User: Which sequence fits this backbone?
């Protein structure tokens, strides 16, 4: 099975839609319909869906497969990864982890969340530390080459 790759922006939009209450089934329907209106409850000043379908089509992104089977982000920026962590796992960069130059540390995840992070994390970042605790795992992410 080939890896399904999508852009960081696309991944953030899909995760934000789920955070706003769209179920996997609703996302599938929205993607199949190709109608931006299906994302109305997720759309706000920071998250715009107008170009989601055209961008995915132009760049060969399989949105339905991303929702159903998961994905790998093609490239993560530090700020984009911070936002993705917040949207995907309901964390806050102000209280739940620390963002530094070339690293993000103190991210606490359960085993399923850690597996999801490992599947989605772009290859330009790596999990440089992974410590098991009673609450799950505390991870440090580092830009590849800086660890």
Assistant:
């Amino acid at each position: 099975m080939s890896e399904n790759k999508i852009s960081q922006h696309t991944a953030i939009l899909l995760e934000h839609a789920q955070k706003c209450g769209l179920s996997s089934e609703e996302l599938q329907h929205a993607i199949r319909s190709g109608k931006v209106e299906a994302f109305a409850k997720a759309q706000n000043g920071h998250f715009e869906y107008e170009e989601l379908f055209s961008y995915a089509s132009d760049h060969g992104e399989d949105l339905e497969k991303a929702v159903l089977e998961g994905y790998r982000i093609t490239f993560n920026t530090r700020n984009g990864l911070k936002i993705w962590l917040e949207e995907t796992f309901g964390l806050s960069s102000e209280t739940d982890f620390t963002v530094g130059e070339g690293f993000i540390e103190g991210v606490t995840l359960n085993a399923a969340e850690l597996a999801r992070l490992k599947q989605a994390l772009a290859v330009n970042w790596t999990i440089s530390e992974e410590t098991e605790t009673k609450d799950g795992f505390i991870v440090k992410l580092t830009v590849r080459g800086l660890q």
Summary: The mean pLDDT is 95. Strands lie at 5-6, 72-73, 98-100, 103-109, 125-133, 136-143. The two ends are 30 Å apart (CA to CA).
